[in-house]
Design brief:
Blueprint (H helix, E strand, L loop, with lengths): L9 E4 L1 H4 L15 H7 L1 H6 L4 E4 L3 E3 L6 E7 L6 H13 L3 E6 L3 E3 L3 H9 L28 E2 L2 E6 L5 H18 L3 E4 L7 H14 L4 E4 L17 E2 L2 H12 L3 H12 L11 E2 L9 H4 L4 H10 L5 E5 L36 E2 L2 E2 H13 L2 H5 L1 E7 L3 E8 L2 E8 L5 E4 L9 E3 L5 E2 L5 E4 L3 E7 L1
Length: 454
């Protein structure tokens, strides 16, 4: 397996929402203080066990950040190039890698090239920068021409990333980000809409600039092998597993999760070569606290995420059980302004469940994963599955760990089919030891056990 970034645990921030920025950019306001505020929270983020930060769009845009206006300047609602550079430096001092949201598939309508086309039409030197310009039609915004918008959204004008001038501009921006901010990688927005040739060229460019530079693509549907492969991307968003995680709990159908894990990471699994990006929620989907049918499963899912193959991540606020759903008015409930780590906002689910405390549980499991290579890079093997019970192992260079999951309302025993208990196992959650002849685990209700071979 490609080990690049397999040791990371991500914290995902959508800064325009978190920091309470105005919904639209007036392009005249003074630089905001978002990065100074975020710097003050870095130690709290670090204490979660986080060692990588994925920060959503930060460059000058008109509204939500994905409608870029200038790839070379930080959005003034957040700050400026210097304050962001200082923020990145503080992240690196704490051992936190910085991954930027790169929006290359489209620009906003206020982007300089599009503005020039509005003014000069066919005579614009940028007329070939965009896809499917039609100077015989009119756009829904009243332009004297029409164009292709991403997924039908006309405020997001689709770039022709195979145009050499467009590539020069975008690759120059990446060089600038690496030189100015010392970033460690990119999350490519709408990577499944970018041409494969562009992705290959971008990868070649970035790796020549910085050989350990990490490229992760947002891919929702399709065969991830088309994107995550040598010479292209290092990882993609694992939406297939995302759905299986919460759905298997809600439906009491652990066969769904076991099927997906086997398909992806079992013996002959189709994605064994690369650690994929694992998440329970993000800025585009409902918060996991609003998705689970039983709040007890919230804690179980976070614990499980650190044990399955992949690179775990957490979306800001969700470490305290923040709720939120998409609705007809948009995504703002998914991207709220927060007094960071306050824990007293009405939209939070109850953060504690008996002995479990989500804000304490996450760093505990992050530490378990960090201290056991098998959980970061190990092979995956299924041991047992039923509707409510599931057990699997992770092994790496002689280290073997067994994980047993119970999503039912009562404690149950799981038989460790095929597990070699001759050397015995000890729990990574407490001091309990399995006898050498024992091949059953009693797993608490809505919880899991983690046993490591002696």
């Amino acid at each position: 397996m490609n080990s690049l970034f397999s040791d990371k645990f991500f914290y995902h921030i959508y800064p325009l929402g978190l920091c309470g920025c105005p919904e639209r950019n007036d392009f005249s306001c003074p630089a905001g203080t978002a990065f100074q505020k975020l710097t003050a929270e870095l130690l709290k983020i670090k204490k979660l066990g986080v060692n990588a930060l994925y920060i959503g769009p930060v460059f000058e845009s008109t509204a939500h950040g994905y409608d870029t206006v200038d790839y070379y300047h930080i959005d003034r609602r957040l700050g400026n190039n210097q304050t962001f550079s200082d923020f990145c430096s503080e992240c690196h001092k704490l051992g936190i890698s910085v991954i930027l949201d790169a929006v290359f598939n489209h620009t906003g309508r206020d982007f300089f090239a599009f503005k020039d086309i509005q003014k000069n039409r066919e005579n614009s030197p940028y007329k070939n920068w965009y896809k499917n310009l039609n100077f015989y039609g009119h756009s829904c915004y009243g332009d004297s021409f029409d164009y292709e918008g991403w997924a039908g959204c006309k405020d997001l004008v689709k770039l022709d990333v195979d145009n050499p001038q467009v590539r020069e501009h975008l690759f120059g921006a990446v060089d600038f980000w690496i030189d100015q901010f010392k970033i460690d990688g990119l999350r490519l927005d709408a990577a499944d809409a970018l041409s494969k040739d562009f992705l290959d060229a971008l990868s070649h460019h970035c790796k020549n600039k910085k050989n350990d530079f990490w490229l992760m693509g947002e891919v929702v549907y399709g065969d991830y092998n088309d994107w995550a492969r040598p010479g292209r991307l290092d990882s993609v968003t694992n939406y297939q597993l995302y759905k299986a995680l919460w759905s298997s709990m809600n439906d009491k159908n652990m066969f769904e999760l076991s099927y997906n894990l086997n398909r992806e990471f079992g013996n002959g699994g189709i994605y064994n070569y690369s650690p994929l990006y694992t998440f329970l929620d993000n800025h585009d989907v409902n918060r996991i606290a609003s998705t689970v049918s039983r709040i007890e499963h919230l804690y179980l899912l976070y614990a499980l995420m650190f044990c399955i193959p992949g690179i775990p991540s957490i979306y800001y606020g969700s470490e305290e059980g923040l709720c939120g759903t998409r609705n007809n008015s948009g995504d703002r409930e998914l991207r709220p302004t927060l007094p960071p780590f306050s824990g007293n906002i009405p939209n939070y689910a109850a953060p504690r469940n008996g002995a479990h405390d989500l804000a304490k549980l996450i760093p505990e499991f992050a530490s378990i994963r960090n201290n056991n290579a098998a959980l970061k890079q190990g092979n995956y093997r299924q041991i047992f599955v039923s509707n409510e019970l599931f057990a699997f192992s992770r092994s790496f260079e002689g280290q073997e760990i067994i994980i047993a999951v119970n999503c039912s309302e009562k404690k149950q025993k799981i038989t460790l089919n095929g597990a070699d208990c001759s050397r015995g196992y000890h729990s990574l959650l407490n001091e309990e030891k399995l006898s050498p002849w024992e091949n059953q685990l009693e797993v608490p209700a809505n919880w899991l056990c983690i046993y490591k071979k002696n």
